[in-house]
Prior knowledge:
Blueprint: H1 8-13, H2 19-30, H3 40-49, H4 66-77, H5 81-101, E1 104-107, E2 113-114, E3 120-121, E4 127-131, E5 134-141, H6 150-166, E6 175-181, E7 189-193, H7 202-235
Parallel strand pairs: 5-6
Antiparallel strand pairs: 1-4, 2-3, 4-5, 6-7
Helix pairs in contact: 2-7, 3-4, 3-5, 4-5
Amino acid sequence: MKSRRLTETDLANMSFLPVEAKRARIEAIIKPKRIIGSYEPFRSTAGDALNEQFPFFFEDQGATPLGKLEEAVAKACKGDPTLLKMNLAVARATHSFATARKLSAERLSVRPITLAFGHAYEFGMPLIMRFEGVACVAFPDLRRTGPLTTRGSRFVGSMMHQRFRVNYPDFRDLRREIWRYQDTHSREIKPIPCSEADLISYDDLSADVAESYAILHSAMLHDEERRRHATHRDAGPLFSTSNG
């Protein structure tokens, strides 16, 4: 059976729950449902929204005009109107937020964190943002429904600490933020600083993720067996007999 990848937000929000509560969440996740849209077009153009500066240029390169950003997002959406609507909203909100903060960004060459069953996770954009003398990394909390909970925010903040600070000591003073995109028409951003007091150790994070995937695989096997038995029952006998 191929391992299914849990999203960062789902993994965070179920972290350190009792086993039965975690299993109930996973069973709800694997139920067949229609998935509407994706924020990948925004993620691929986030540097444009955040005034990314490129190396070997000694002067400020200037922010990408909003119109150019919108064109890049539209191109990434490949004509899909649903994708375009949801991604333009968050791209515009990000551009507005970056402009208000007078923010600039630089791309970081940092590896993802590889966790249980070889799944790689980002837990934050690979960009270092600078504003008002502060250097910051951020996790974009994009969901309208089911965003990060308090539990999930602590988990994400701890993963960001491991990925950016522990693995790269030069970044040990980086500020960490969760950017909560509000469930409004304009999707404005509410920045939430990550606590320095509630950090979870890597061993505990890794063990919790391994537990979540063990439960996921058990639930998937159970679901597969249930569907197989249902198929056999529906098929009926191969031959019928009559007493005529």
